Hints:
The complex is a heterodimer of chains A (103) and B (144).
Chain A: H1 3-9, H2 12-15, H3 17-27, E1 29-33, H4 34-41, H5 45-57, E2 61-68, E3 71-78, H6 80-97
Antiparallel strand pairs in A: 1-3, 2-3
Helix pairs in contact in A: 1-6
Chain B: H1 5-15, H2 23-45, H3 52-74, E1 79-81, H4 84-107, H5 114-138
Amino acid sequence: MGLAKAKEQLDDTVHSPIRLCIMAALASVDSADYQTLKEALDVSYPLLTKHATILEKAEYLKVTKQFHGKTPMTIYRLTTKGRKAYEIHLAALDRIVQGLAAT
Amino acid sequence: MNVGRFTTAAAQAQKENPTGVSRREAWTYIGQGLLFIPLLFINLYASHLPEGGLLRWGTILTILIMAAFVKKAAGPQGVRPRGWKNFQILTWIWLIIVFVVVGVALQFKVDFTWLMALVASCVIGGTYAGLGGWMLKKADHGTC
């Protein structure tokens, strides 16, 4: 894969720093809740919600809302499409950082 | 697909134990599984015991109450480790198979010896406790 093709494979939806962090966090687990993600990323609620919504619209993220007693909980999980997109994006980054060496 | 530091690190991250896995939930599964063993043993061996019918219904009722409260006792779940959903589905499938086998045996009046009852109760309870043990192993680096 050449640099040009790697550049094309970069996914704009994943590439934003916060969305990349969300994807990376969720890729390493089965699912995680809103509070855990917020603390891990050290971002505000509106910002996390905004980026999670973008990922959800792209069908990369599945959001489940549930109650534990009276406490509402939002659970995030990467979809198969999201995991694939994340892998492709990382592979493209891997190729890009090689620069001209492997071209 | 190109393989380099990013992809290797991401693949490795999926194998590591994540932080935030609930120990409380893991212990709840283990506790519930271990409590299932004597209850199911009494249930299956009830026909040999005095007041067997009462014991059978009593243990069924206790198991149902335990199952209803286990989710509450587990507390809020933050992080589920990679593969948790598949593991849980397998546990449920396994439990359903065992319950069906035991149910059919009881329906056809199979007389459970103490050994048969012990094995069946250990298999069912052990499976559930196994799910908790796996979670606890994954929660090694967890804080909750």
